[in-house]
Amino acid sequence: MSRFDHIMPESIEEAMALAATNGSRILAGGTDLLREIHAGSAEAARLVSLRAVPGLDRIERTPKGGLFIGARVTLAELGAHRDIRKEWTALSDAALGAASPPLRNVATIAGNLLQRPACEYYRTDFQCAMKGGIDCPARPGDNTHHAIFGGGACVSAHPSDAAAALLVLDARIHSNGPKGLRTRPVADPPPPAPPKSHSSPATSSPPSNCRRQRVSASMFKRVNARHGRSRWLESRRGWTSTSPAAFARRESPSAAWRRSPGHCRRWRPGFAAG
Amino acid sequence: MPRVIRTKVEVEGCWSEKVVIVDGDDLRSWPAGSTSIVGAAVPRVDGADRAAGRATYTQDVQLSGMWHARVLRSPHAHARIRKINTRAALESPGVHGVLTHRNAPKIPWYLDSFLFDPHLRYAGEEVAAVLAESEAEAEAALRLIDVTYDVLPAVTDPEAALAKGAPKLRASGNLAGGASGCYARGSVEAGLDAADLRIESSFRTAGALHNALETHGSVARWDGDDLILWDSTQYIFGIRQGVAEKLGLALNRVRVLCPYMGGGFGAKNSVRKYMVIAALFARESGRPVRAVLDRVEENLSTGHRHETVTHVRLGVTKDGHLTALEAITSAGGGAHAGGMMPVGGPFRELYACPNVTTEERAAQVNLGPQAAFRAPGYVEGTFALESSIDIAARELKLDPLEFRRRNISRLDPAMKVPYTRSSLGKVLDAGATALARWPRLIRRAGDIARGRGLAAAIWGVGGGPPAQATVMMQADGTLTVLAGTQDLGTGTKTVLAQVAAEEFGIPLANVRVTLGDTGVTPHGPASWGSITVPSMAPAVRLAAADAREQVEALLQSTQTRPGRGSRKPARATRRHRITLAALADLRKTLGDFTIVGRGSRWPNPEGKRVVGFAAQWVEVAVDRVTGEIRVTRAISVHDCGRVLNDRLATSQVEGGFIQGLGFALMEGRRVDPITHRVLNPSLLDYKVPTIRDVPPIEVIFLNEPDAAANNTGAIGIGEPPVIPTAAAIGNAVADALDIRLTETPFTPRRVLDALAAARKEQS
Hints:
The complex is a heterodimer of chains A (274) and B (763).
Chain A: E1 5-7, H1 12-19, E2 24-27, H2 33-39, E3 46-49, E4 59-61, E5 67-69, H3 75-80, H4 82-87, H5 89-97, H6 101-104, H7 109-113, H8 120-123, H9 162-168, E6 172-177, E7 180-185, E8 215-216, E9 221-226, E10 229-234, E11 245-246, E12 254-258
Parallel strand pairs in A: 1-3, 2-3
Antiparallel strand pairs in A: 4-5, 6-7, 6-12, 8-11, 9-10
Chain B: E1 3-11, E2 14-22, H1 47-52, E3 67-73, E4 79-85, H2 87-91, E5 95-99, E6 108-109, E7 113-114, E8 119-120, E9 126-132, H3 135-142, E10 146-151, H4 158-162, E11 181-185, H5 188-193, E12 197-205, E13 217-223, E14 226-231, H6 236-247, E15 254-257, H7 273-285, E16 289-292, H8 295-301, E17 308-316, E18 322-332, H9 345-349, E19 356-363, H10 378-395, H11 400-406, H12 424-436, E20 444-445, E21 448-460, E22 468-473, E23 479-483, H13 492-504, E24 511-514, H14 532-559, H15 574-577, H16 580-590, E25 595-600, E26 611-623, E27 629-638, H17 646-665, E28 697-701, H18 725-737, H19 748-762
Parallel strand pairs in B: 3-16, 14-15, 18-19, 23-24, 27-28
Antiparallel strand pairs in B: 1-2, 3-9, 4-8, 4-10, 5-9, 6-7, 11-19, 12-17, 13-14, 13-16, 17-18, 20-21, 21-26, 22-23, 22-25, 26-27
Helix pairs in contact in B: 10-18, 13-14, 17-18
């Protein structure tokens, strides 16, 4: 495991400037990034922690009846939030369906959407497209639990549980980066990853066709809405499993999700088990 | 006058003859209800130390000046090293040595391999080892070793490995041991002809990984010509023997220590390469050397439950009597298999059936070597047998419990000898009584279908000699028990303390057990095959009795001396003779002294087999839409003779059931079909049950001492609880949805596939 500096900026601007420097990675909960560094599949000279940046840990109602969720809100907080439990049940269920309590207490919603693939080939020492290799060993290999739609250089489905719920709830991502404020739906393809020169191939940008993998679905989860309420169901029984999900990449340290009023009342059969 | 007796000992389905030297008489088992410390659910004597982090496990051993060894492992499933260059690694900071096949002593390993061998037969096999001042430096140096491999074709599926034209691991062919293991009684063909119903079915089980909490590891230190080796092991004396052999040392020059241990489940039975690597590096460098494997290395190289394919034919009469059983099993034994685990065992032993054939053939495949894994073979075989029995019972519309009752054997059907007692009927009755208390089954609720299933199991649990123990009474009246065994985390230390305290007649707090140290204890057996209690506890009891008799003699002589005449002379029962006050008196008379009692396990009963029967009932809830199976409640009934400690025995049953549940529902080593490398060697991707998966488990013991088995009346309980679980869950799913799951793990996909197949068949 390599050494790194740990920096805690106290404003978004400062954090963005630090994050743009060479060898920097943004740190929120760290459940994915630190594991990657420990496993040697990611390297960072500097971790820019969002812990001291004010405002990123808030959940607020919008004037139109929607909800803003700060990037650093943890899955445990999402799951426990009264309004979310009542009106956006799919999201709280999905948040509570992820991992285990100790992990949910630190894992953040932004980090959850920006996870690296939960693919056995990626996590063992295969050279895969996401680690600087040429192709995807899962495509000809054991891909039982991988995406059946889309899939470019990588056929792994997105690992986020919450992403499925956010997708069905028509959440939008507000992000702040070098190019300014942006807003886009969760399901939209993200912009090209910002150029970063990391020594490790593991952290280099994925090939561009990877971005075409917008929505992927796997067998074991379905999201549905019943009686005007959303629900999230899972069945994973011990196998890495994935939700119908958006593929998202980190663009900036600040991101929030908003739900437009009325949208969650629609039944979305398109996202049932595929 | 010592006598020499020959006796037979069964371990995990294999029998061997042992010679025992005995003197005097064995004790009789305590009458039921006559004990106060034995049978009490006392907490673990070392529980607080373990929980508080004060217990020193092998991985916790820190010696001053200690260096670290790490191992470079083959990235290819089958390859030959063409070139290896270690210069850069040797020059890397903190590095003091690199061992490869070119400079390491040519120590024979496995069938025809060596400690370091240029022919690599699985991904994860040892290529080189680095010694460095820190683990991180050793790790970094591994990446600097430049190896050129000639990659060879590989095979990992057992049936494919035995097919014509398969890539060969050895010139002699892939069939382990060169022949199948065959067993036959009667004629299966005749039995099938006489049957009213014939069932043919095939079952597959996935490779399962042990994943004990503590990974494998050693710390080696040389004291002159003596090797001191801390090792996380199930068999300190076996490691002593193995390491002494590999290094050419005398047995009294090797001391193996394992005072605390974080589990093994069968993977820590034998000598391993990292032990010898640590010892070699330590001898060369003059430093203590630590070699501890990480979870991934562990799951690639230290063993697994082999994957199996079993083809079953079964014949039964209309009234539910078995007429024929046939099981043909292929298993993948890993790269260095010399044979296979007894998958046919349950077919041969569980039920009375006149015509039985079993064939077991293990293939050498390009995966890490197999190891025993909690009831090896019987877990896989019982899944096939008890699923087939359930198919037959359902076809005949017979109650599965009644079906099993009709096939209970009074004699051991394979050996044609009586059991010390035949308790399968009692086990089934006890379970049925508990089942009757369950609420009525609600079969359907929305997408959820519920069902219940039953499976039974047999396992040889008698233990036997050689097992020796010493009990020393110190001057202050406290006892030190020296037992050459080890406590895997099962509670051996606690149970042996209970036995010594009971027999000697002093409080449990006054007994201390020393185990896991070949330097100070007499020989004890491996902790495998559920034999630790039935082998060690009788030896400890005899040693305590020997010490007690010596003390009683002393008391008798001192208590009758002048001035003590008012005391009643020694007509009282044994229990009353030794009191703490009397022992304090003795100290005044004798000063500092040690009483040494010795005990040795007596032979097993002649012409009888000691078995532990078990049966489990489970209720499952299956989601017909997602295919998810949840086990919602369970009963586990066991005959383990006298229960020495209900709390510890219950924990064995719960642990076994949970491991069985993992085997049934989620555990399975997956292998990339192209490179033949393991895809899920870490706990991120190899899923074991968590507390969320565990239902309430009702644990029931018959708790009737098996007086014929040994002088404690206790027989083994470690393994039976894992044996029937997969079949019981599969049978419950069949009850819920009328589908048959024939391959573990029962993933949602397999459930959905089975449902789709059933729908197709109907339409």
